[in-house]
Specification:
Helix content: 25-40%
Number of strands: 18
CATH topology of the largest domain: Rossmann fold
CATH architecture of the largest domain: 3-Layer(aba) Sandwich
Number of domains: 3
Structural class: alpha/beta
Distance between the termini: 18 Å
Shape: globular
CATH superfamily of the largest domain: P-loop containing nucleotide triphosphate hydrolases
Largest sheet: 7 strands, parallel
Length: 488
């Protein structure tokens, strides 16, 4: 099993945490980090030492994804889930539905547990933790911000940030567009199972319904202009609005299908497979696809669901960041004002667990960005502190979302390139091509994959290849490797 550097680091940090006496650490790792593969490695190594292991999931789709991951690596597992065909009490590794375990009179015995999506903390999980007080429980979550989570778990391990994985080429870069959105000021809020507050679904549904015709037309227009023909998922504030959205897309000649948790499991599986085959372009839901939905080919997110919760926001955004041979980037169409509300998802980094000692707020668990930290200047590659470098480069202020009646506008980040930075990037590609003996065509095509156009700038003379260029080249190599994998 080949682990990536950030996965190896995560395992090392978890081992150190447990060795220090923390029997309840959480691996805080972004969507598409490869948490299941990391868990698979940990459990497999433990089982080789004679330890009984269990992997807890809280929904059928996550159980099936875990089964697929283990079986594709030739690892035998048993499954604890309502008379599952792979039930095997003698297997050293068990994949368990937490709901099925809750119904068992005789609870399973184990020496090591890993809890997937641990930010949703179940009563059964806590009962097992209390019962097996000396057994390590490792939590996995991209969003460990839930209220009181620090009472159940006692350490937070963050081996790498989403931004770092993007720079290193392990995630797909995302372009963000924002604009027209419903007015949600003054709406009542409601507590989520995680403890965070979010808009009351009934209030939100009414607010969206008042403007649904306008918003839907805007949504269709922008998908057609900015993301036409891309496989997409859409989030709506209610099942009713999702179905309405699907009807409008189909009337506009864009194939779309609605999915929700009220459907039978076999019906949902048929819809997932149909979307992956390309039978239709847009898969629309209210909340179903927000967590654990693994479809790397998706390259567009249509967000029509205003949310105050960073957990909901980050989880949805992660659905389009996986690499796939069919895409070079992904597009986030924000009709909900969520980027203006929360910032860019790759800059939201977990920093601590809520221990219940002070009034709960998701933001208390998120690392604050401090401009005083030293960083590389993208223009001269020197070290800079603050927003201005000695060479004259200044980090541009993030543009606010511009609300128009028709079109969304591109939201820029400090890392976005101007023409002079494009020249530096092009110079780095040329230097790499010289070192590797690549032809000029490789440089032009690689540049186009990055910026969507062939070079129209003069390449800068560079003495060394900047880390940003190296990260992009790594991204291309991973995509090519994935392409060969899917081809097999």
């Amino acid at each position: 099993m080949q682990l990536r550097p950030h996965q190896e680091r995560a395992i090392s940090m978890l081992r150190q945490s447990i060795a220090k006496g923390y029997k309840r650490p959480i691996l805080g790792a972004c969507c598409s980090f490869g948490k299941t593969i990391t868990a698979l490695y940990i459990l497999t190594e433990a089982s080789k030492k004679g330890k009984k292991c269990i992997f807890f999931c809280d929904r059928v789709k996550l159980v099936q994804q875990a089964i697929n991951a283990f079986r594709s690596n030739g690892i035998e597992v048993g499954v604890i889930m309502s008379d599952h065909e792979l039930r095997n009490p003698n297997a050293m590794i068990q994949i368990a539905s937490i709901q099925s375990v809750a119904r068992m009179r005789r609870k399973p015995e184990f020496d090591l547990a890993i809890v997937d999506e641990c930010h949703t903390h179940y009563k059964t999980t806590q009962e097992l933790m209390d019962r097996y007080s000396n057994v390590p429980f490792i939590g996995l979550s991209a969003t460990p911000y839930s209220k009181g989570l620090g009472k159940a778990y006692n350490d937070l391990v963050v081996p790498v940030t989403t931004r770092q994985l993007l720079d290193q080429g392990y995630l797909c870069p995302v372009k963000y567009y924002g604009g027209a959105t419903a007015n949600v000021s003054g709406l009542k809020t409601k507590r989520l199972p995680t403890g965070a507050k979010d808009y009351d679904p009934k209030e939100l549904e009414r607010a969206i319904d008042e403007e649904s015709e306008y918003l839907t037309g805007d949504i269709i227009l922008n998908y057609t202009k900015l993301a036409y023909n891309r496989p997409a998922i859409a989030f709506s504030p209610s099942v009713k609005h999702s179905k309405y959205l699907v009807d409008q897309f189909n009337k506009a000649g864009i194939s779309a299908v609605h999915i929700d948790g009220y459907m039978k499991e076999n019906e949902r599986q048929d819809i997932y497979k149909g979307h992956e085959r390309g039978d239709f372009k847009i898969l629309s839901c209210s909340m179903l696809l927000g967590t654990g939905y693994d479809a790397p080919h998706i390259s567009c997110l249509i967000d029509c669901y205003p949310s105050q919760s960073k957990i909901q926001f980050v989880q949805r955004a992660g659905r389009i960041m996986r690499l796939h041979e069919s895409k070079t980037d992904a597009i986030y169409l924000d009709h909900a004002g969520n980027i203006a509300r929360h910032g860019f998802p790759e800059d939201i980094v977990p920093d601590s667990l809520d221990d219940g000692e002070k009034p709960y707020n998701e933001n208390n668990q998120i690392k604050e960005k401090k401009e005083s930290k030293a960083k590389d200047c993208p223009q001269c590659f020197g070290i800079m502190v603050g927003i201005r470098c000695a060479c004259g480069y200044e980090i541009p202020i993030m543009e606010q979302i511009k609300t128009t009646e028709e079109e969304l506008t591109l939201l820029k980040k400090p890392s976005d390139y101007q023409d002079d930075h494009k020249g530096v990037f092009l110079g780095g590609l040329e230097l790499y091509a010289q070192e590797k003996g690549f032809k000029a065509g490789w440089v032009a095509h690689s540049y186009k994959k990055k910026f969507g156009e062939y070079p129209q700038v003069t390449p800068a003379k560079v003495k060394e290849i900047h880390q940003t260029v190296k990260g992009f080249i790594k991204h291309l190599e991973i995509r090519q490797a994935k392409g060969r994998q899917y081809a097999r």
